[in-house]
């Protein structure tokens, strides 16, 4: 194992110092370190963060390897500064058994670029009718702790209650895609002034808020952990604020795109902007930003959703919803939050690692800590070129935009996965 001596790095935005990585852990931090056997990296001007952790990634394998594989998604993640991602269950076959979650977990280990932690489905086939084998998935080699039917809402309140009760036994968490299905039938975009103008069927904010309100009450009733995926409305923030004040064990995520883009993008009819939940209004974006800063929303999660060209470059009505996110998330966070490194570390690494129960991730670099970290150049600016992304898909909403920040290096247990801004493998 190679040792790495990282010189003049600002650890979570602190004063420049040296950081020595050896045998998979951070061995030493301090000024003027020496290590004759180590590879020296000059990190002047760079910030070291604990490796980012994504609670919401679609890796598409098994089933849609044309859109993404565990390996290509892992590479995209490493290039985005991630050392761990949680892989959503809406694959084909669905990750609703111990066999499928173990397959995804094993593929992640083989790729070896990030830790891939599978999420298990709540219901068999994501059909919302009966509970999947939650216990078997928890007991499997993948040790699943997060369960989600993401892409679909667990709409049946009795099933949602049962799932919340079940996961309590192993401190699991149910991650809800909050969308009351009857209120969003045929929906194409956010319901509001722009959808009226365009004549497109709307996805009303209340369809999200009603499910979050129901589920925080259910979580309170059974005393379980609930996580809300991709919160997108100002009203949802108020429901969460109320629930947290009551002591409900609820956490919530917001995506980079919901922090930056609005429903005005739909006026382009470019399906790259079609996503579920849809892009909302500027007032929602402002409320989400404030909630993230305040902590009512706990984390940024990408909802990285690769889609093959034929599923995305077609008429708006037929396009699949979803956007790429892994390779641009840190830049969007930097754009939205500014260089608040401690806040970024909390929202993109420490808190998601805690929610997912990933003990070796989300730890600030310190002696003895697993060397899962990323080096960011905050002064760099880059133009997003879809063809240059490591993802197999091209559906980024940031094409040809200039974004702040660049990931220079990422280390997974002391081994570089990214160096000089390029994937090592
Ligand atoms: Zn979702």
From TrEMBL:
Keywords: Hydrolase, Metal-binding, Pyrimidine biosynthesis, Zinc
Pathway, per record: Pyrimidine metabolism; UMP biosynthesis via de novo pathway; (S)-dihydroorotate from bicarbonate: step 3/3
Pfam families named in the record: DHOase
Protein residues bound to Zn(2+) 1: 56, 58, 150, 303
EC annotation from Swiss-Prot or TrEMBL: 3.5.2.3
Record-annotated Dihydroorotase catalytic domain positions: 47-234
Cofactor: Zn(2+)
Residues that bind substrate: 58-60, 90, 276, 307, 321-322
Active site (UniProt): 303
A Gene Ontology molecular function term of the record: dihydroorotase activity
Cofactor note: Binds 2 Zn(2+) ions per subunit.
Catalytic activity: (S)-dihydroorotate + H2O = N-carbamoyl-L-aspartate + H(+)
Residues given in the record as Zn(2+) 2 binding sites: 150, 177, 230
Family: Belongs to the metallo-dependent hydrolases superfamily. DHOase family. Class I DHOase subfamily.
Protein task: Catalyzes the reversible cyclization of carbamoyl aspartate to dihydroorotate.
Protein name as annotated: Dihydroorotase
Record organism: Micromonospora fulviviridis
Originating gene: pyrC
């Amino acid at each position: 194992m190679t040792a790495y001596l990282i010189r003049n790095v600002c650890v979570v935005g602190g004063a420049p110092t040296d950081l020595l990585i050896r045998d998979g852990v951070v061995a030493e931090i301090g000024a003027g370190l020496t290590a004759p056997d180590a590879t020296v990296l000059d990190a002047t001007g760079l910030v070291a963060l604990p490796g980012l952790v994504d609670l919401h990634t679609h890796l598409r394998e098994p089933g849609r390897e044309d859109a993404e594989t565990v390996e290509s998604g892992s590479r995209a993640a490493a290039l985005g500064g991630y050392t761990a991602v949680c892989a959503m269950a809406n694959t084909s076959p669905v990750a609703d058994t111990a066999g499928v979650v173990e397959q995804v977990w094993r593929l992640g280990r083989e790729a070896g670029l990030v830790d891939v932690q599978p999420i298990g489905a709540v219901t068999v086939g994501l059909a919302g009718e009966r509970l999947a084998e939650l216990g078997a998935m928890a007991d499997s080699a993948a040790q699943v702790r997060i369960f989600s039917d993401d892409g679909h809402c667990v709409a049946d309140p009795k099933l949602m209650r049962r799932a919340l009760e079940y996961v309590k036994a192993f401190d699991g968490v149910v991650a809800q895609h909050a969308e009351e299905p009857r209120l969003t039938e045929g929906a194409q975009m956010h319901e509001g002034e722009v959808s009226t103008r365009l004549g497109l069927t709307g996805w009303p904010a209340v369809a999200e808020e009603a499910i979050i309100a129901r589920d925080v009450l259910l979580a309170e009733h059974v005393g379980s952990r609930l996580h809300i995926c991709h919160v997108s409305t100002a009203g949802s923030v108020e429901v969460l604020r109320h629930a947290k004040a009551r002591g409900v064990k609820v956490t919530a995520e917001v995506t980079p795109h919901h922090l930056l883009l609005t429903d005005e993008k739909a006026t382009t009819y470019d399906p790259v902007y079609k996503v579920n939940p849809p892009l909302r209004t500027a007032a929602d974006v402002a409320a989400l930003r404030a909630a993230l800063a305040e902590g009512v929303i706990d984390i940024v999660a990408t909802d990285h959703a690769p889609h093959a060209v034929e599923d995305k470059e077609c008429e708006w009505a037929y396009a699949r919803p979803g956007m790429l996110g892994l390779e641009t998330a840190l830049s969007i966070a930097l754009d939205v939050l500014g260089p608040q490194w401690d806040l970024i570390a909390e929202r993109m690494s420490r808190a998601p690692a805690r929610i997912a129960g990933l003990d070796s991730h989300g730890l600030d670099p310190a002696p003895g800590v697993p060397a899962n970290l990323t080096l960011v150049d905050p002064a760099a600016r880059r133009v997003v070129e879809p063809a240059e992304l490591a993802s197999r898909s091209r559906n980024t909403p940031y094409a040809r935009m200039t974004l702040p920040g660049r990931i220079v290096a990422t280390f997974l247990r002391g081994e570089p996965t990214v160096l000089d801004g390029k994937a090592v493998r």
